[in-house]
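The following block was generated as part of the benchmark described in Methods. Ligand: zinc ion.
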Amino acid sequence: MPRIELAPSPSIPLHSLEALQSDALLPICKACGTQYSASSPIIEKNCLICEDPRQYVPSTGQEWSSLAELAESDIQKQNDKESEKRKNYLIEDDEDGRIKMIACDPSFGINQTPILIETSEGSYIWDCASFISLPLVGHLTTLSKPLRAIAISHPHFFTTSLTWSRALKVPLYLCEDDREWFQRSGDITHDDQVIWWKGEQELGKGVKVIQCGGHFPGSSILYWDRLGEPAPPKDDLPTKPTPVSGIIFTADTLMVQPTQRSFSFLWSVPNLIPLRPQAILSIQERLKYLSFTQATSSWPNRWIREDAKKVLDESVTAYLAAEGWRVDEGRLVELLT
Ligand SMILES: [Zn+2]
Ligand SMILES: [Zn+2]
C-alpha cells in the first residue's frame, strides 16, 4: 500500500489554528487516546474508557498526554542523532485510491487508522485518532472533493473528534446510544456541529452509517455504495479496474481477522471477550439488506476483498458454533455436542 507523506501546508485556516490551540492542553489518555474536558475530575483518577472491561488500564498505571505533547514527541532515527516530530501520513489503498487510511508515526494509543473516503460528491472521515498535525489539517481542508463529515463507529475511537470537527469545520456524527461515553459533551457549544443519530443516518449520496450494536450499544459501520459513483476515469492501473461494488467499513463492530478470510465478533477486543450469540445475529440482520462485496476494519491489511457478505454469513455460523449455538429458522438452538 503506497505511503503518502504530507508536506507542510502553506495556509492553514485561522479557525483550524484556533481550534487546535484551544484544545492543545486538554488531557488525553495515553492508553486509549480519549480526550477529556479541562474541567474533568477524571485526571485525578483513571480514564473511564480504560476502566470499562472492554478496554484496560495498563499494568504500569494511568498516564496522560495532550495534543501539544503529542506534537512534540520525537521519532528517534536509528544510527544518527537526528529526530523528527510525530507526523501523520496517509496509506492509499492498492485497489481503490479513493480510500486512504490516516496513520501517525510514532504510533499512539490504540493506533487505529481513521479512513478518508473521497466520493464524487464529497469526502468523509470514518473514525478518529488522537493526533492531528498541521500538514494533515492542510491536506484535509484543501481536498478536491471537500470534506463533508466525520462519523465515529464507537467510543474507543471518540478520541479528539471534537477538535477534528472544529479544526476541519465539518459535522461530527455520533450515535445517540453511546452519548454517555463521549467525554467532551460539556464542551459542545452552539457553534459546534455535533449530530447525535440513531438507527441509520445518511451522510451524503451513497454514504451512510448503520447502527449494529454489540461491541457498544451504538456500535456502527459505514457503508459506501460505490455502484452509485460515476464511472471512474481511465484507471492508472489498466489491469486492475476501480471497484464499483458496495463496501462496509466495520471498525470493531465486526472485525476482519488477520487471515482476511473471516470476521470476529468481540465485546472486548484487547481482553478477547466474545459477543453474545444474539448480538452477533443482530449484526447479521442489520447488514442483511445492504449490497456489498468488500469490507475493511480500522487497520491496514484487514480487508475482505471478495464475497464479503458470504464471508459474513459463514463467519456468523462458525462463531456461533464455537459458542455452542446454531441457527434454525432464525432462532438460536443450543448445540448438544
Ligand atoms: Zn483511556
Ligand atoms: Zn472498540
